[in-house]
Amino acid sequence: MSTTKKMTGVALAAALGVTTLAACGGGDGKDGEAAASGSPKSTTVTLVSHDSFNVTPAVLKEFEKQSGYTVKRLKAGDAGAALNAEILTKGSPRGDVFFGVDNTLLSRALDNGLFTPYEAKGLAGVDATYRLDAEHRVTPIDSGDICVNYDKKYFADKKLAPPQTLDDLVKPEYKDLLVVENAATSSPGLGFLLATVGKYGDKGWQEYWGKLKANGVEVVDGWEQAYNERFSGSAGGKKAKADRPLVVSYASSPPVEVLYSEPQPKEAPTGVSTGTCFRQIEFAGLLKGAKNEAGGKALLDFLISKKFQEDMPLNMFVNPVLKGAALPELFTKHGVVIDKPWQVSPQEITANREQWVGTWTSLVLK
């Protein structure tokens, strides 16, 4: 779920800056000093995240009341920018917990030694397929599928079946219809590149992108430009320029279109090409050098609690990783379940990510 992060994560995120989510007890820096000197424990825990993190205020206040900690949030841009900032300040972090590193960037965070291992309470209830770090340096929090979305009305009007697979996208009938994000600057863009690597392999994906380029694919910098400005199916799009009925977004996009349409339609106006998807998993970790380790651990426990996991879908438009966490009706009615997303192992991503992105840039953008 990262960057630019998932579907409306970017569109709905607040402006950059430090935001105190609690109604009282804001931090002035003295809490950390007190903890370090052996004075009364710090009562403020700072969460560093990308812009898309969100939680219902009442749910957060309940955690604060039960734990005794006040949560302060530092927004740090999109996922890649937020991670880079933490790497630059490693050992003297700006907060206690970092949220937002995903499986496409996980190796970069771990190789830089950003996190202190901690096995969060309740981790046994998280599906093992999401637990990618046996040392518990990071804790899985959510998952989402990066997929091509389509404008249902466009295809109905044209009496053309929407594409469902990666192979479909290079067919002549879909020429000049697809807009994607830059794999070098966008989390969804990188995820879509990895979907093609998962499908066609280390050699075949390059040939595939050559065909996609010949078929008129458009590349823009990020999700917001692709979805809100170029995609014809977006309710919030700038319609004068929105002439592409295919876009790389998320499997959770259709429920969000319903939620933010006025009046709300009975059916989602957009669909998902289920054979084009890449599974994104997001993690949080206790930052090495955190001033409030105890508060950071309590916050990680909260992030995989049933209360937070069930609150998450309508705030960040992602799926919970905790087994038994219920999805809201909006998701169950309008969401799309991706049973077999394309996958690339974290080890392969670690070894090849920079080379793949460089090759993609030379092939597609030049």
What does this structure look like?
The chain has 366 residues and is α/β, with parallel strands linked by helices. 37% of the residues lie in helices and 19% in strands. The chain has 14 helices and 11 strands. The chain has helices at 8-12, 30-37, 57-67, 79-88, 106-111, 152-158, 187-214, 223-230, 253-259, 293-303, 306-311, 313-316, 329-334, 346-364, and strands spanning 17-20, 44-49, 70-75, 97-102, 115-116, 139-151, 178-181, 218-220, 246-250, 270-287, 319-320. Strands 1, 2, 3, 4, 5, 6, 7, 8, 9, 10 and 11 form an 11-stranded mixed beta sheet that branches. Helix 7 (187-214) crosses helix 14 (346-364). Residues 1-39 have low confidence and may be disordered.
End-to-end separation: 29 Å
Number of strands: 11
Tell me the helix content. 25-40%
Structural class: alpha/beta
How many individual helices?
14
**How large is the radius of gyration?**
21 Å
Low-pLDDT segments: 1-39
What overall form do the CA principal axes indicate? globular
Blueprint (SSEs and pairs):
Elements: H1 8-12, E1 17-20, H2 30-37, E2 44-49, H3 57-67, E3 70-75, H4 79-88, E4 97-102, H5 106-111, E5 115-116, E6 139-151, H6 152-158, E7 178-181, H7 187-214, E8 218-220, H8 223-230, E9 246-250, H9 253-259, E10 270-287, H10 293-303, H11 306-311, H12 313-316, E11 319-320, H13 329-334, H14 346-364
Parallel strand pairs: 2-3, 2-4, 7-8, 7-9
Antiparallel strand pairs: 1-3, 4-10, 5-10, 6-9, 6-10, 6-11
Helix pairs in contact: 7-14
